[in-house]
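Fig. S4 source data, part A: sequence.
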Amino acid sequence: MATSKKKQPLSNGFVFSTDPNFKLDTTDTPEADTLPATDQKLRIKLETKQRGGKAVTLVLGFVGTTSDMEALGKKIKNHCGTGGSVKDGEILIQGDQRDKVLQWLLANNYKQSKKI
């Protein structure tokens, strides 16, 4: 039994409006300026939840632009010699690298960093 196309819901996620005064809300929130390294309060944490039992070192609490966070993540990954990524305001480093990350941060003027 075939159904007509008119009764099928839209699968592309668009919502149509017949309001002539409708305007799409495009207000973008500006990114916060990057704090200097001495003012950053970074926290280092080990997590295994929802990762198939694999350990991941998280660096939390970075205040600044996304590009600066990605640059910091790349420097930490290079120092540890492992992979990782930057997602949702967190720097993820593969494996239990808490000690290496803390040593690197303290050596690079992130004096308020600590493991949690």
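Fig. S4 source data, part B ends here. The CA atoms of residues 12 and 89 lie 28 Å apart.
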